[in-house]
Amino acid sequence: MVVLGGGTAGTMVANKLRRRLDDTWVITVVDRDDAHPYQPGFLFVPFGGPTRSLVRSRHAFVRDGIELVLEAVDRVDPAAREVVLLDGRLLPYDFLVIASGAVPRPDQTPGMLGPQWRRTIFDFYTLDGAKALATALRRFTGGRLVVHVTDVPIKCPVAPLEFTFLVDHWLRERGRRDATDLIYATPLDGAFTQPVASQRLGSMLAERSITVEPDFLVERIDGTALESYGGRRIPFDLLVTVPLNRGADFVERSGLGDELAFVPVDRHTLQSTADPHIFAIGDASDLPTSKAGSVAHFSADVLVDNVVELAAGRELTHSFDGHANCFVESGDGKALLLDFNYDTEPLPGTYPVPFVGPMRLLTESRVNHVGKLAFRWLYWNVLLPGRPMPVPPAMSMAGKKSPVTTS
């Protein structure tokens, strides 16, 4: 069993498989380095959040009995059932799990990686980018601050909104908000992909006097302005962008990816549509749901159950429903929580215990904010080791309210 990627999804899957498969199975995890980042923590770094312990050793979270190989992947050869590493080594496999994630690619947008990169144009999806942005914000006294999403899908699709709410609050605290035009530019037709959540989040942006530029698909960056394919221009003094996200290059070289190098899979079984011996999970797949840690978590049990069944020569019987939940930091020590799946959009209600909570869905609260901060401990100590979580993988409608419609 070979797992390509030692991030969130790959580490969870490998640890869970080691518990489920007997010792006749050799499990190997491959990643290019020994640095495992806690990516949700990057969001807080521009506002003075801690940087210590955001990156830890991958070795520390891989169970005994799993081999961790530190080398980049050149390609997968499905016909030979081999992984070819960049140093020329070959790793044969009976089953392969691709968990290589999504990678921000600022080089894919003309002008983004020009002389203004990390001077007036910043990202926060990398630790280096978040640190550089922290310095830029301290120096920012006012002007046009634009938060921009290049295209979808992206890792953690609510993160740009969270940054927008947090920077609004940060500027108000420092008396700089009145001197700042804050703009949110998105290729979507609203604040979010789901109608109920989009309406709620859109109204929160409006309440904070944040201008939304919808349906903005950037063609290039010309100095200090975004230019869309339709000829629209958005000037900026400070640009915080989410570059185009793509899958791993080896996926493209192996002929296993779509146009963005994400692996097409059956959305319920997580099995590759090209090869039954290959599965993909987390941000590496083309699942029609959020590229978020919660999706990796909820789908991991389903994937492991299916791999174990397939290894035993049985048919796959477990199905992933697209369950995702996302905390949305909204500033002032509050946050919202979204819970949804393939068929049900985010709705009001309570989570994780129906009618009890303590967290409330689609509602700003301090409890939700505390929940997001507490997740860091759960991530390192429960999620990555593959220990059971007291939350079922499938979404439940218990405790949720249907949206009120008016004619």
Automatic annotation (TrEMBL):
FAD/NAD(P)-binding domain sequence ranges: 2-139
Domain of life (superkingdom): Bacteria
Recorded GO MF terms: oxidoreductase activity
Ranges annotated as spanning the membrane: none
SUPFAM superfamilies for this protein: FAD/NAD(P)-binding domain
UniProt feature coiled coil, ranges: none
Signal peptide segment: none
Protein name: Oxidoreductase
